[in-house]
């Protein structure tokens, strides 16, 4: 089983906002100037880039990312991608992992808002990240302070080379004011803007996987903690995309068979102000939204009658007893 390693140098925006360049959410590459050595779609792979010694294809060394050929004329290479949904950019990670003698010396990013169709010759592009220097085999984190929402990005590399991964952290744009107040929305879904505030452990699987769409594809596609060898239980705190009144809850232990939690509970509250650290402390005393429920392996658990009437909430704390893995969590709610 793989151990999840988090970059300790990653800035807060990588944990606060979803990666809207994730193909699991619907992002995709559309076009590029050249991807002779490594096809552009690999750059959006949600898994960390890998290096496989001795692996070659018909064009040369196989690389896990987007790689253009050596440019023998003036100009630079570029790649256009469609984000999973319109969003206000908060930061990016241009990752050159495993590209050492073939990384681009510099890169820049442009954004466009194209609500329907794809960018064309008339599309207006806005610079969101001026040219920055790149190093080989490195993460390059850059905060972005652009208030406009974008649907498409164009990554420019100067003059050529390879980028292993591009992560685009953004606040999804939601017109909650126009949303039907009687409809139910999964207000912790990543694509709606829900995010993990804190968790005590995510040794084998990231807590953010709980908020992904669909069911987990395997046991690695969920939140899984280490085996607890001391009293207590594991937990994670999740912020809703919008204050809501919870009507239905789904806890899915898909693929977790010998390692699902014995039971779970959910606490909740409407919070304003404070910090993520103070939220963690306060969450211990939040009222119960879902009393402790026994769980089954590899099973979708649905709760409605069991939900306690707390009114509008902004945050939840999922407790699992004592440890284990949960694939997905849904919080179907009415907008408050």
Keywords:
336 residues; mainly beta; Jelly Rolls; 2 domains; 8-stranded antiparallel β-sheet; 7-stranded antiparallel β-sheet; 2 helices; 4% helix; 40% strand
Describe this structure in words.
The chain has two domains: 13-172, Galactose-binding domain-like (Jelly Rolls); 176-335, Galactose-binding domain-like (Jelly Rolls). The protein is built from two helices and 21 strands. The protein has helices spanning 13-16, 276-283, and strands at residues 28-32, 56-57, 60-61, 66-67, 77-95, 106-112, 126-133, 139-143, 149-158, 162-163, 165-172, 185-186, 195-199, 223-224, 234-252, 263-269, 288-294, 300-303, 313-321, 325-326, 328-335. Strand 2 and strand 3 (60-61) form a beta hairpin. The protein is globular, with a radius of gyration of 21 Å.
Set out the fold topology.
Elements: H1 13-16, E1 28-32, E2 56-57, E3 60-61, E4 66-67, E5 77-95, E6 106-112, E7 126-133, E8 139-143, E9 149-158, E10 162-163, E11 165-172, E12 185-186, E13 195-199, E14 223-224, E15 234-252, E16 263-269, H2 276-283, E17 288-294, E18 300-303, E19 313-321, E20 325-326, E21 328-335
Antiparallel strand pairs: 1-5, 2-3, 4-10, 5-8, 5-9, 5-11, 6-7, 6-9, 12-21, 13-15, 14-20, 15-18, 15-19, 15-21, 16-17, 16-19
GO molecular function: allantoicase activity
Pathway: Nitrogen metabolism; (S)-allantoin degradation; (S)-ureidoglycolate from allantoate (aminidohydrolase route): step 1/1
Enzyme class: hydrolase
């Amino acid at each position: 089983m793989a151990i999840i390693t988090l970059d300790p140098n990653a800035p807060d925006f990588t944990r606060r906002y979803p990666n809207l360049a994730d193909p699991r959410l619907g992002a995709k590459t559309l076009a590029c100037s050249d991807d002779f050595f490594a096809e552009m779609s690999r750059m959006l792979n949600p898994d960390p880039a890998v290096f496989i010694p001795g692996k070659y294809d018909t064009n040369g060394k196989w690389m896990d990312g987007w790689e253009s050929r050596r440019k023998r004329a003036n100009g630079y290479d570029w790649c256009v991608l469609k984000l999973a949904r319109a969003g206000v950019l908060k930061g990016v990670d241009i990752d050159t992992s495993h590209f050492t003698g073939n990384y681009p010396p510099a890169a820049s990013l442009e954004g466009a808002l194209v609500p329907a169709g794809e960018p064309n010759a008339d599309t207006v592009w806005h610079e969101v990240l001026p040219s920055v220097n790149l190093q080989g085999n490195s993460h390059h984190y850059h905060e972005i302070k652009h208030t406009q929402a974008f649907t498409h990005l164009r990554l420019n590399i100067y003059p050529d080379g390879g980028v292993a991964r591009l992560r685009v952290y953004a606040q999804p744009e939601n017109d909650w004011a126009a949303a039907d107040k009687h409809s139910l929305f999964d207000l912790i879904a990543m694509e709606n803007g829900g995010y993990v505030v804190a968790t005590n452990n995510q040794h084998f699987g990231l807590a953010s996987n709980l908020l992904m769409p669909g069911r987990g594809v395997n046991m690695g596609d969920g939140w899984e903690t280490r085996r607890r060898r001391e009293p207590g239980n594991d937990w994670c705190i999740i912020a809703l995309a919008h204050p809501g009144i919870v009507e239905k809850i789904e806890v899915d232990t898909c693929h977790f068979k010998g390692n699902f939690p014995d039971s779970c509970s959910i606490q909740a509250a409407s919070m304003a102000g404070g910090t993520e650290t103070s939220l963690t402390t306060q969450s211990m005393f939040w009222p119960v939204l879902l009393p402790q429920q026994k769980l089954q392996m590899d099973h979708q658990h649905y709760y409605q009658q069991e939900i306690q009437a707390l009114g509008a909430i902004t945050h939840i704390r999922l407790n699992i007893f004592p440890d284990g893995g949960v694939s997905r969590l849904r919080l179907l709610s009415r907008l408050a």
